[in-house]
């Protein structure tokens, strides 16, 4: 049994006038500790699939399970990190990163100390008493990562968490987030439009086609890249080769998607 299993997931959004199929027959097995990236054309259902895995949306058909059980039946199954940090501006950084523990009633002294230690390890020593407005965007995203990890989730979902940052900060955070996730042996799923980011951080890349969203191809990242930190991986000759291969596949899918949406004359 896979750690995280996606079994024949279909999803349709219904309105009074129409039904829009956004996901079709998504099946995949993901092992514990794997880092998987989802890439594909806009509108291929990547974020919808994350919401299904998180248990926020019930799929029209099929299911997502963690060691055989739906995420809703697993305590602390999912940690979700978004493009915006969504830190509460009226709370200190310490209060923000501890909020998940307080909500689920597990804010013990040991859990609090572990969370504050993680703040230090991620380069945010001494900021616990500050408010979000006093931190840079990169520091806020690091605090958001600690908040996401505070409840010790089984699976970490990352929905374009670096897309609002400047390029230099983004590269630094890729290294930091990847190292933190690997050190904690977390299973992670990243939604991104950045092919380079996906290659540099992942063990495997799932390429999605659109209209409807479906899994078109899986790319295994070579060991030579996976053992490197993301910034170092970007300098390796295999990085450029794989980038070009995925770029061409993505362009083909986007061209097909564009043709399928053309209005007949």
Automatic annotation (TrEMBL):
<dbReference type="InterPro" id="IPR003593">
    <property type="entry name" value="AAA+_ATPase"/>
</dbReference>
<keyword id="KW-0067">ATP-binding</keyword>
<feature type="domain" description="ABC transporter">
    <location>
        <begin position="4"/>
        <end position="235"/>
    </location>
</feature>
<dbReference type="GO" id="GO:0016887">
    <property type="term" value="F:ATP hydrolysis activity"/>
</dbReference>
<dbReference type="InterPro" id="IPR050166">
    <property type="entry name" value="ABC_transporter_ATP-bind"/>
</dbReference>
<dbReference type="InterPro" id="IPR027417">
    <property type="entry name" value="P-loop_NTPase"/>
</dbReference>
<protein>
    <submittedName>
        <fullName>ATP-binding cassette domain-containing protein</fullName>
    </submittedName>
</protein>
<keyword id="KW-0813">Transport</keyword>
<dbReference type="InterPro" id="IPR017871">
    <property type="entry name" value="ABC_transporter-like_CS"/>
</dbReference>
<dbReference type="Pfam" id="PF00005">
    <property type="entry name" value="ABC_tran"/>
</dbReference>
<dbReference type="InterPro" id="IPR003439">
    <property type="entry name" value="ABC_transporter-like_ATP-bd"/>
</dbReference>
<dbReference type="GO" id="GO:0005524">
    <property type="term" value="F:ATP binding"/>
</dbReference>
<keyword id="KW-0547">Nucleotide-binding</keyword>
């Amino acid at each position: 049994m896979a750690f995280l299993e996606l079994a024949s997931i279909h999803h349709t959004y219904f309105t009074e006038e129409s039904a829009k199929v956004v996901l079709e027959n998504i099946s995949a097995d993901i092992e514990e500790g794997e880092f998987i990236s989802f890439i594909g054309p806009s509108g291929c259902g990547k974020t919808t699939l994350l919401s299904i895995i998180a248990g926020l949306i019930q799929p029209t058909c099929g299911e997502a399970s963690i060691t055989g059980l739906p995420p809703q039946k697993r305590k602390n199954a999912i940690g979700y990190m978004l493009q915006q940090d969504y830190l509460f501006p009226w709370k200190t950084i310490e209060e923000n990163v501890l909020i998940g523990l307080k909500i689920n009633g597990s804010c013990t002294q040991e859990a609090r100390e572990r969370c504050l230690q993680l703040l230090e390890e991620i380069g945010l020593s001494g900021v616990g008493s500050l408010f979000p407005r006093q931190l840079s965007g990169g520091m806020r995203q690091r605090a958001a990562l600690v908040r996401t990890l505070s409840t010790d989730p089984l699976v970490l979902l990352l929905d374009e968490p670096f897309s609002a940052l400047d390029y230099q900060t983004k590269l630094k955070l890729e290294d930091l987030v990847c190292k933190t996730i690997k050190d904690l042996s977390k299973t992670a799923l990243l939604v991104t439009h950045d092919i380079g980011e996906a290659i540099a951080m992942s063990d495997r890349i799932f390429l999605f086609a659109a209209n409807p969203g479906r899994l078109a191809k899986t790319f295994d990242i070579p060991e030579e890249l996976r053992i490197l930190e993301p910034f170092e991986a970007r300098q390796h000759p295999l990085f450029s080769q794989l980038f070009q291969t995925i770029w061409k596949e993505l362009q083909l899918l986007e061209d097909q998607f564009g043709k399928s949406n053309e209005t007949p004359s």
